[in-house]
Amino acid sequence: MTSPTYPLNVDQPYPRNQWWVAAYSAEVERDLLARDILGERVLLYRTEGGEAVALSGICPHRAFPLEKGRLVGDHVQCGYHGFTYGADGGCVLVPSQSGVPQKSSLRCYPVVERGDLVWIWTGRADLADPALLPDLGAVGLGRPDWACEQHPVCEVAARYTLLIENLLDLSHVTFIHATTIPGGEKVAQIPVAVIETDHSLTVQRKGENLPLNPLLKMQFPEQDGPVHQHFDAEYLGPAMIRTGGAVHDAASGQLLGINNFLHMITPAGPTSLRYFVITTRSFGLENPALGQINLGMGTRIQPEDSAAIEAIEQVFQSGVTLPMEISARVDNGALKVRRRLEAQIRSEQSA
Ligand code: FES
Ligand SMILES: [Fe+2]
To answer: Which residues does the UniProt record annotate as the domain Rieske (predicted)?
Structure first.
C-alpha cells in the first residue's frame, strides 16, 4: 500500500504552521460556509464589521455541523440545541442553563485577507505572522496596475503534493494540454534551469524565438516578430505556485508583458484538495477579452490536470505495488521541493 504521505518521506502529510487559502474573499459573506482544511472542518463567515472569521466547524456539544446553524449578529448559533459561540470561538450561551461548560469553545484560526483571498493559519496561533505570506504584489495580486481574474474553485480527489509536482514539471503541458495551451506543444523541449532563493524555487523554461501564435497576437497586437516566452513554475511555498511569466520581443529583448497563472493549493484532507486559480497580467488592462481568454483556458486546463492527478491518486489507493520511481533531469526542481517540504514538516514535529 502506498504510504499516505507519499511522495514525501515524513510522518505527517502537510505542514500546519503555514498560511493556506481558505476561500476567495467574495465567498465569505454573512452566512456560514464550511470547508475541510487539512482534515479539519472549518467554519467561515464575516462579522457585521466585515472581518473574516474562521472557527472550528463542528459543535463540541454533539458534533452538529455548525454551517447548518445560523448567524445571530456576530455569533454562531448551533442548529441542534442552540449552543452559541462568539467570533473568538468562546461559548457565550447554553440555552438550558446559566453559565457555559468549561472547554466548550471553538478553535479560532488566525485569518488575514490579502489579494482578495482569505488566508488561514492552521498551526500554532502564536506563530501566525502575515510576513510569512508569499509576496503577492510581486505576482500581480492586489495591484491596480495589473488585471486579474479569479477562476472557479474546484475540488480534486488527490493528495496536494500531486498538484505541486504537476505544476513544477510543465513538460506535461505538451502532453496533457497540447490543444488547450497555445504554444504548449513545444514546452517539453525547452531547456530547464532551477533558480533557488530562501522563499522560492523556480523551474525556469524560457522559450526562445517563438513564432507569434494567435493568442500572443491578441495579447500583444503591436508585436510583429518572434518572442521569448517564459513557461516558468515558481514554488512560493506549498500553498501557492506561479506559472507562466514574461514575454519579450526576441529582437530587442524589450519586455512586452507578464501573464501569470497563480495556483493556490489547499489540502482538504490527506487525499483531497481545493484548487484556486487566479490569472494576473501586467498588460492589456483595457482589453477585457484577454481576461475572458484566460478564464476560458482555465476552464479547459483545470479538468485536464485534475483528471491526471486523480488517476495517479487512484493508483496509490488501489494498493497495487508501485514500480521503483525513476526521475529525469527535468524533475530536479520538483525533487528539491520535496526536500523543502519534508524539512518544513519535520521542523514542526521536532519543535
Ligand atoms: S450539537 Fe450543538 S448545541 Fe448540541
Ligand atoms: Fe497542467
So the answer is: 19-120
